[in-house]
Design a protein that fits this description.
This protein is mainly alpha-helical. The chain has one domain. It contains 5 helices and no strands. Helix 2 runs antiparallel to helix 3. The chain is globular. The two termini are about 20 Å apart.
Length: about 70
């Protein structure tokens, strides 16, 4: 999970794409479904980087809180 956080906590879309490639290289054989899901949904997921970093932090922090409470 720590390596995947590097993707969505990246400072911009290009860095996130680079980190997603690194994630695939490291974990693709073990978690191919996760990698494929991120790749297939990247067009939608990458819209996240249009927001300022402070807003993005609130978004992913809120998701973590929702997951915990679920």
């Amino acid at each position: 999970m720590a390596d995947l956080k590097l993707v969505y906590k990246a400072p911009n879309k290009q860095v996130a794409e680079d980190r997603l490639v690194e994630f695939e290289e490291q974990w693709g054989d073990k978690y191919p479904v996760v990698v494929k899901s991120w790749q297939n949904n990247w067009k939608n997921l990458s819209h996240f980087f249009q927001y300022p970093e402070a807003i993005r932090k609130v978004i992913y922090t809120t998701n973590a809180v929702k997951s915990f409470n679920a």
